[in-house]
Amino acid sequence: MSTQHVTFQFATRDDAPSIASLSRDLIEEGLGWQYRTERIRALIGDPETVTLVACGGESTIGFSIMTFGDERAHLVLLAVRPAYQRRGIARRMTHWLVESAATAGIASIHVELRIRNKAAYEFYRSVGFAETLRLAGYYRGRETAIRMMRMLRAPSITVEQWRPPART
After folding, report:
1. Is 136 exposed, middle or buried (CB count within 10 Å of its CB: 0-12, 13-18, 19+)?
2. What's domain 3-151's architecture?
3. How many other CB atoms sit within 10 Å of the CB of residue 157?
4. Which residues are catalytic?
5. Domain ranges within the chain, ordered by starting residue
6. Whole-number Å distance between alpha carbons of 81 and 73
7. Residue 75 in 3-state DSSP?
8. What pTM value is reported for the model?
9. What is the mean pLDDT of each run of 10 residues along the chain (168 residues)?
10. Which terminus of the chain is more solvent-facing, meaning fewer CB atoms within 10 Å of its CB: N or C?
11. Pair 150, 128: CB distance under 8 Å
């Protein structure tokens, strides 16, 4: 299938089983299944979270989930079926999320990935993310994560007005 026939839309609760299966098979493999259907449904229903699905015909071929805070967003999950990888689908979803975050006034987007996932590391670097640190045992105490970040703007800094020290 050509990627020009891939559509992107907000996920609905009915998309949760296919998203959960993709997470289990493509992201959580070997770690235990944490993002089951009910957890995905909760994320879809969360007003602070955006869940996108990439559809090819009647099937879900990819998805992304990002939570939004006041200053930072967290790219929770992103996956594309292997048969559709390297066709710009993840890049298009990420671009949409970055533009949405920038419009919302977000300062930075953060993501974690497995240290052995070289393809994901290169992908995130190619879309403007930089490695910030490594977290040993992040994945269920068994695997190191790489945390990456993309700055969208300088964070707001609140500086308290200086006051002389209190006299005692």
Report:
1. exposed
2. 3-Layer(aba) Sandwich (3.40)
3. 5
4. 112, 124
5. 3-151
6. 24
7. strand
8. 0.86
9. 77 95 92 92 96 90 95 95 92 95 93 94 96 90 92 76 76
10. C
11. yes
